[in-house]
């Protein structure tokens, strides 16, 4: 017995298969594939939302807990300022971020995404990118402002 006949195959997709099957020009091709794949146990499931999971993991991994020791020098350090603004158009999407240290050092960064995104998605991607940069710079306190459109 071949491997794929012995196991269930789960296909995660974000494509609306019901709408595609309703169109006569594409449903003929899909029926041919359905016959070919019919001998296998193929299940189609909606792809879970990944961005919210990644954001939840990021927040969970970077949120202090009771078990973390408090840094005695933390109160002596200043608060970094972080600003994000994202935008998108028909052909591309991107965002700008500014990270400013308490002593006046400023990091300005422009991001261009290789995927289509709404304004809010671009802003969230930029927020995560900037927080990752701040983490690499060992920033302890940060105040973020996101311009949501």
Structural descriptors:
149 residues; alpha/beta; Nucleotidyltransferase, domain 5; 2 domains; four-stranded mixed beta sheet; two-stranded parallel sheet; 5 helices; 6 strands; 36% helix
Explain what the structure shows.
The protein is of the alpha/beta class. The chain contains 5 helices and 6 strands, in the order αβααβαβββαβ. The strands form 2 sheets. It has a 4-stranded mixed beta sheet with strand order 5-4-3-6, covered by helices on one side. It has a two-stranded parallel ribbon with strand order 1-2. The longest helix is centred in the C-terminal third of the chain and has 18 residues. It is elongated. The chain starts with a helix and ends with a strand. The relative contact order is 0.14. The model has no long low-confidence stretch (mean pLDDT 73).
CATH architecture heading of the largest domain: 2-Layer Sandwich
Percentage of residues assigned to helices: 25-40%
Question: What do we call the CATH homologous superfamily of the largest domain?
Answer: Ribonuclease H-like superfamily/Ribonuclease H
**Strand order in the largest sheet:** 5-4-3-6
Q: How does the major sheet shape up? A: 4 strands, mixed
Calculate the mean pLDDT score and round it.
73
> What order do the SSEs take from the amino end to the carboxyl end, as H and E?
HEHHEHEEEHE
SS field, number of helical segments? 5
Total count of strands: 6
The name of the CATH topology of the largest domain is Nucleotidyltransferase, domain 5
Q: Decide which structural class fits the backbone.
A: alpha/beta
Strand content: 25-35%
N-to-C CA distance: 56 Å
What is the radius of gyration?
A: 23 Å
Q: How many domains, in number, for the residues?
A: 2
The CATH class of the largest domain is Alpha Beta
Uncertain ranges = none
GO molecular function: nucleic acid binding; RNA-DNA hybrid ribonuclease activity
Pfam families: RVT_3
Organism: Cephalotus follicularis (Albany pitcher plant)
Protein name: RNase H type-1 domain-containing protein
């Amino acid at each position: 017995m071949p491997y794929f006949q012995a196991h269930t195959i789960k296909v995660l997709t974000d494509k609306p298969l019901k709408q595609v099957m309703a169109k006569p020009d594409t449903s003929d091709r899909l029926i041919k594939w359905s016959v070919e794949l019919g001998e296998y146990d193929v299940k189609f499931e909606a792809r879970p939302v990944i961005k919210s999971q990644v954001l939840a993991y990021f927040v969970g991994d970077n949120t202090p807990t009771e078990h973390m020791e408090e840094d005695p020098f933390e109160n002596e350090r200043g608060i970094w300022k972080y600003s994000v603004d994202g935008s998108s158009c028909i052909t591309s999407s991107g965002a700008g971020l500014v990270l400013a240290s308490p002593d006046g050092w400023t990091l300005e960064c422009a991001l261009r995404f290789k995927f289509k995104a709404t304004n809010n998605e671009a802003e969230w991607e930029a927020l995560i990118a900037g927080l990752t940069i701040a983490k690499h710079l060992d920033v302890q306190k940060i105040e973020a402002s996101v311009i949501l459109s």
